[in-house]
Amino acid sequence: MDRLFRDEAIVLRTYKLGEADRIIVLLTRSHGQVRAVAKGVRRTTSRFGARLEPFSMIDVQLHKGRNLDVVTQVETIDPFAGMITSDYAVFTCASTMVETAERLTEDSGDVDTADSPQQFLLLYGALSALARRRHAPGLVLDSYLLRALALAGWAPSCFDCARCGAPGPHTAFHVQAGGAVCESCRPAGSVDVEPGTMALLGALLSGAWAIADASEPRERAQASGLVSAYLTWHLERRLRSLSLVERA
């Protein structure tokens, strides 16, 4: 039985193992989330230590292990790490993205299905947009979070009422109800939302960047708060990296 396999992957996280090794958490295109040991990678003589930094897009060969796979070869596809870590705002947004991706793909439930590469492709596109400064970092982050949650089955309603389906736009948002709510369905604890903020949420979810880029700072600030609350509710905990993100 051939225990070697190869895949494209994004490095989500690394942590030390023993004196010279690291455990690498990868989100792969075809095998879901993979945890592997990179042996000797912390030595200065390591052949591929710099290629296994968080945020890097790589082509990796692994040997299937009982508990952890073993990295045997690595080639860099896109060196996002250097472009991302040079800017604190970009770095904190990217950190929140990879932490979210790690949480959402822990069980790799979509492996070998039609949806298998979707979280991988979404994260790859978001990291590329961050690294190349295509849009404001906060907008890229919030768009990624909304779309990642949507892929996980938790898409918020940003127009019609999440409870009764009454056509929008509506001016209230309730995290537990699933997004926008009409006046008839509005539960206690709903947040009043400016029309421009609700439009921004819809644009971030759908990828309508012309609308998102033209949004006002107050709309972005309110949208970010709603996205953070929505993410925390569904993940059932606040991400450590999210508290470091700089919000305008």
From TrEMBL:
HAMAP family: RecO. Belongs to the RecO family. It comes from Actinomyces radicidentis. GO terms for biological process: DNA recombination; double-strand break repair. Involved in DNA repair and RecF pathway recombination. Gene3D superfamilies: Nucleic acid-binding proteins (2.40.50.140), Recombination protein O, C-terminal domain (1.20.1440.120). Residues 4-80 form the DNA replication/recombination mediator RecO N-terminal domain. InterPro entries: ARFGAP/RecO (IPR037278), DNA_rep/recomb_RecO_N (IPR022572), NA-bd_OB-fold (IPR012340), RecO (IPR003717), RecO_C (IPR042242). The keyword Cytoplasm does not apply. This is DNA repair protein RecO. The keyword Secreted does not apply. Keywords: DNA damage, DNA recombination, DNA repair. GO terms for cellular component: bacterial nucleoid. Signal peptide: none annotated.
